Amino acid sequence: MSKGKILLTGGTGFIGSHTWVELLNAGYDVVGVDNFYNSNDKVLRGIETIVGKKVVFEKADCSNKEEFKKVFEAHPDIVGAVHFAAYKAVGESIEKPLDYYRNNMVSLLNLIELMRDCGKRANIVFSSSATVYGQPDKEHLPISENAPLKRSLSPYGKSKQMAEEILSDSVIAYNNVKVCALRYFNPIGAHPSALIGELPRGVPQNLVPFITQTAAGIRDHLNVFGDDYNTPDGSCIRDYIYVVDLAKAHVKAIDKLMEEKVTVPEVIDEPTYVDAAKTGRWFVYNLGTGRGLSVLELVRGFISATGVNLKYEIAPRRAGDIEQVWADPSKAKRELGWSADTPIEDVLRSAWNWQKTL
Ligand code: WQD
Known about the structure:
By secondary structure, the protein is of the alpha/beta class. Helix content is about 40%, strand content about 15%. The chain is globular, with a radius of gyration of 20 Å.
């Protein structure tokens, strides 16, 4: 007996594909939607091999309302949505801000309107990001959901902040809209089957795919962007979360939205979305491990976990990098019954096993 059909936009992306698997494993039906801007249909075959059945996929561009509407007409039994479809490269967003705002905001507006107008509860899980916090002050580390939001440094980060504002205003204005915004820290790794994983386009911007491509000999060496930060070993600290643990959090978030009852929380600790939270239909969770790791610790962890030596050099700092950030994930633990516990060595091995299949 299915728990209901979930619309998964950006379903063939890195986090989307892993969430697709976990939603199916949890007994939901899934209709995945993607325009293959940053992925390809091989991902669909990988998901089918993992779950042992055909997937339901609709190729569509969520920023094209007519195209997107056809998906809702073909699947009137959708009971919830997980929204990943967005451009997400920080550096590219600085070069092409209008492309980012148009694609990311119009896709979101289309999703909210199409879900709202379905005539039933519009349950939406939104893929947000810890970049909404900017560089937190030391006293706000580890970061909880009531840390102040700071103006993001990139149009990508600003699009996430705007998206949360649009969603919270929609919760206030439309009484059938119910939202869970999930703020990710640094998703890494790949499915243990090595059938799906991260597929960076061109030269990877993110650390772990650059590490695995260096280990595979595709890149000559890794540049460590700065070892003169005010951290124990001088390199930046982040909260690296296993993509499968992250995917499981989305299932927990959908479960929570599917609960019929709407209860107003006793304590409202998100200073930015107090009115939306008062409806009992607005939730925000930080999804991280709660443990910070430096770049150099991650490099050493990769070498010890895989036995593969890694050539790296210390390079100048990268513009826009924040020094240190990691999550306080206690609210997600308390309210979703979720935590990210996969040991970092297993996560790094999963990334390496995936790289070896490419
Ligand atoms: C991590 C650390 C780099 C590459 C970004 C986005 C965030 C999210 C995750 C989308 C930093 C260092 C990196 C390299 C290095 N993306 N590094 N050499 O910048 O924390 O977050 O990706 O949601 O929104 O902002 O991740 O992996 O790029 O960098 O030394 O070749 O690794 O300086 O300290 P980041 P990252």
